[in-house]
Amino acid sequence: MSRSVMLVEDDAAIRMVLRVALEDEGYEVLEADTGEKALLLALDEAADVILVDLRLPGIQGLDVVRTIRGASRVPIVIVTAQVASDDIVAGLRAGADDYVTKPFVT
Question: What is the DSSP letter of 2?
């Protein structure tokens, strides 16, 4: 059974690192570098989980989360460098299931 992740990230280097890590774990990765592309992809493909950056060109990440949440119960994780508690609260209120900050610590 194939598992898929939609990765919504405008930084190509971060997107590549995350894609490689997710593929190494057996996930099929669907990629979008703008909010608009993410919403179109969400309509066409059914991902098992969606990872969304907040700062995107065009439609911002919170609006992507709200729009997808309005149509789907797919788990959504915000992955962002924004660490202020107001940003975390806004992300969770928008419908995200979790909030992970960059840079990642291993």
Answer: -
